[in-house]
Structure formats: structure tokens, C-alpha cells
Amino acid sequence: MKNILITIAYTGTKFHGYQDQPGLRTVEGTIKEALEKVFHEKIKLHSAGRTDAGVHALGQLANFKCHCKIDLGNLPKVINYHLPEDVSVILAQEVDMDFHSRYRAKRKHYRYKIYNERNRNGLYANRMAHCGYPLDVERMKRALMKIQGEHNFAAFEGRDASPANPVRTIDKIEIRQEGSHIIADFYGMSFLKNQIRIIMGTAMEIGRGLKEEDALYKATLTGKREDLGHTADPSGLYLMEIEYL
């Protein structure tokens, strides 16, 4: 018996999110089905995190225990044979039997990408959010810096989200512009449902001058969703990496 940790990359456009849901096409369900075809046994998959419908990943992690005789260097190729083109296993490694990808995780890195030109570009369809108005990135940066650290993000919860505690700590936020691309990186232990998308939707409105520079910070104090902007498109969000410090 081995405990195997796999790194998963996927395009979230055609999935109903990551988490397994009976009757729906999900990343977790698709991976489990492929693993059971490979190992001919029931697989219990422990995933480090979950993403919503339309959100992508380059570094999702999950572990499972099985009787594996396949060389781990070749295992991704074997699993990928049973997977559709929009999801793949890019790495497989053996971990200790007590390892759990979710409970051992210490920090997650998410990235949000914006294509900032007047007209949309078909090359980036479902890969980046599009904003057709000029954005003041320095203004967005100042706004984002104010919500680093520990805050009550109750106003930033997605619909139907009801965590026991909406207090979250954002360790670091970085934002930069590379030509027509604006890239924002978020680092933290955990995030609320739609939290980053609501932050970025509001940040874009701040960048356009439609909201005050301190709108994000004020919402952490008032707890009112109406103080914030729109929820940004899921196509711009990527789970980049999960760290085990």
C-alpha cells in the first residue's frame, strides 16, 4: 500500500467546480474515475482545496492510498490516458502514510489575470478576465495593500457561503502590469468562497475611479456586500500552488 500525492492542472471552463458532485462534471469526480480505471479498486481522494466553476489550476494537489506497482515517473502518463484534454496529472510522488493534502497545507497561492485593452482578444477567451477600460494599477495596488493581514471578510463571501468564521488572513498581495496584462497574486492559508473574485471586481472599479481607494478596507469594517463592486469573472482566477511549510 502506498500513499500517492498527485499534482493536477486543469482548465475549469467546462467543469461544475472542483468538488465531486453526483451527476455533474467536476474535476475531482473525473480524476477519481480515471484512478479507479488505472488501479481497478475504489479510490478515496483527499484534495488540498477546491475551486469554483470556471476557475483554473496549475497546482491543485490530492493524495490517495492504493496498491500501486506502476513506476511513479510514468504514473501521470498512465492516468492521463483516461482523462479528457482539459485536466491532467503532471506529477506523482510517494508521501508518508500519515500525509493528508488538505490538513498538511500551510498556504495557498492564487493568481488573477486581467486583459486590459479596449477590445477583447479571442486568444484569451476563458483564460483571462477582460476589462475594456483603462485601469490605474498603482491605485489598485494601494487599495489592495490595505486588506493584507487579518480582517473580517464577511462582506466578501459568495452567495450561499456560510463559514463559521469569516475572519481570514491574507499574508501577501502583489499586483503588477505587463503590457496589456495585469496580474495579481494572493497568498494565504484559506479564502472564502468568491473572496478573491469579489476583491478583484472591486479593485477594477477602484482602478477605473468608480469607487474610493479605501472601499475594500471599509467593507472589512462595515461587513456590507453592497459597499463592494461586482464579482470578477472566474476565468481570470488560477490556483497556482499549495505550500507545505
Could you characterize what this model shows?
The structure is a single chain. The chain is of the alpha+beta class and 245 residues long. The chain has 2 domains: 2-95, Alpha-Beta Plaits (2-Layer Sandwich), CATH 3.30.70; 107-243, Pseudouridine synthase I, catalytic domain, C-terminal subdomain (Alpha-Beta Plaits, 2-Layer Sandwich). Helix content is 20%, strand content 30%. It contains 5 helices and 10 strands, in the order βαββαβββαβββααβ. It has helices spanning 27-39, 75-80, 137-145, 195-207, 215-222; strands spanning 2-10, 46-47, 56-66, 87-95, 107-115, 129-130, 149-152, 167-178, 181-188, 237-243. Strands 1, 2, 3, 4, 5, 6, 7, 8, 9 and 10 form a 10-stranded mixed sheet that branches. α3 crosses α4 (195-207). It is globular and about 60 Å long. The two termini are 26 Å apart.
Distance between the termini: 26 Å
CATH class of the largest domain: Alpha Beta
* Name given to the CATH architecture of the largest domain: 2-Layer Sandwich
User: How much of the polypeptide forms β-strand, as a percent range?
Assistant: 25-35%
Q: Tell me the series of helices and strands, N- to C-terminal.
A: EHEEHEEEHEEEHHE
Please work out how many helical segments DSSP would assign: 5
Task: Using the alpha-carbon principal axes, give the shape.
Answer: globular
SSE-based structural type: alpha+beta
- Fraction of residues in helix: 10-25%
Name the average pLDDT.
96
CATH superfamily of the largest domain: Pseudouridine synthase I, catalytic domain, C-terminal subdomain
Biggest sheet, in brief?
Answer: 10 strands, mixed
Q: Could you name the ranges where pLDDT drops below 50 across 5 or more consecutive residues? A: none
Q: What is the total tally of β strands?
A: 10
What is the CATH topology classification name of the largest domain? Alpha-Beta Plaits
Radius of gyration: 19 Å
The figure for the number of domains is 2
